[in-house]
Amino acid sequence: MKTIRTSRSSMAMAGLAVVGALTMSACNDDAASSDTAKTPPATQAPATSSAAPGTPAGSITAAAPSAGANGGATGAATGGSTGGAPAQSGPTAAPGTTLKIGAAATVPFSSGSTKGTVSLAVTSIDKGDPADLAPLKLGDKAAGMVPYYVRFKVTNAGGTDLSFASLTQVKGTLPDGSEASEVMLIGTFDKCPHPSFPKGFTNGQSVTSCVLALAPQATKVTGAEYWGEPYTLGKGVNWK
User: Fold this and answer.
1) Percent residues over pLDDT 90 in the chain
2) pTM of the model
3) Class of domain 59-239
């Protein structure tokens, strides 16, 4: 009988040891769960979107109804007003120069590794109709906005062949000098052709182009600025 009592006592003690171990394990698990709950999950910083370097603030990119391989129609080069004689470049326009619409300025030109000199003239700023924007599917970005077509002429005034390059750094401006919203067109938009320079764009050759600017109905686009290298926005060549 004594032997039996001893075995039962040992079994009871072993049972208590097991219960104690389970209790300790449960407490440790609870503590671990509590610590996990108190530790905030790692957060990922939101992605920051930024415009491509050199892109003006307020620019909107739109796909025109018929996309061209070079981002626009490629027009034929036309001879300069000199009747084929070499175009003579004048002094380079200083940053901040302001000209009347129709007047030409000599400016440095660069497109990738291609560098040269061009004569640039903003020839007109034409007001359009808000309905013109429907094919561009701008949605809310065009709400309450009126399109303006800033038209300009580029003449190669240097000795570099500028074939297939493109001058797009012309931006509309509002009466207070601030930037108008710009629509960067991808494809062909008949109301505002923006061709690349055609093949054979050598000295004396000219091409006409256009940029699309938007202004709220309460104001209008009254001027333009060329801000291509080496100029910068706000310190370029202006037309009013």
Assistant:
1) 59
2) 0.70
3) mainly beta
